[in-house]
C-alpha cells in the first residue's frame, strides 16, 4: 500500500505547491494523492504529474497520508523523490 511507500521513502516532499514545483524540476519518482482532498487543489498536481509523465498513486485519507509523512496534519499530496 502507498502509505508504506511514503513512510519508507528516503526523501519526500509534502504539500501541493512544493510537489508541483518538484515535478517541474524533474525530481519526482512518484506522486501520492489523498482522494478526500479538495479536487481543485489536487487538479494542479495531477496536471503537473501528467506533463512530467510521473505515476500517480491514490490513497483514501489525507489524515493517514499526513501520519505516514510523520506530520500532525493531513496531507493532500506527497512527492517521493528520486
Automatic annotation (TrEMBL):
GO CC, one annotated term: ribosome
Keywords: Ribonucleoprotein, Ribosomal protein, RNA-binding
InterPro entries, sorted: Ribosomal_eL30-like_sf, Ribosomal_eL8/eL30/eS12/Gad45, RNA_bf_YbxF-like
GO molecular function: RNA binding
Pfam family for this entry, one: Ribosomal_L7Ae
Superkingdom of origin organism: Bacteria
Record-annotated Ribosomal protein eL8/eL30/eS12/Gadd45 domain positions: 4-81
HAMAP family linked to this entry: Ribosomal_eL8_Bact (MF_00574)
Family: Belongs to the eukaryotic ribosomal protein eL8 family.
Protein name: RNA-binding protein HNR43_002508
Organism whose genome encodes this protein: Anoxybacillus mongoliensis
Taxonomic lineage of the native organism: Bacteria, Bacillati, Bacillota, Bacilli, Bacillales
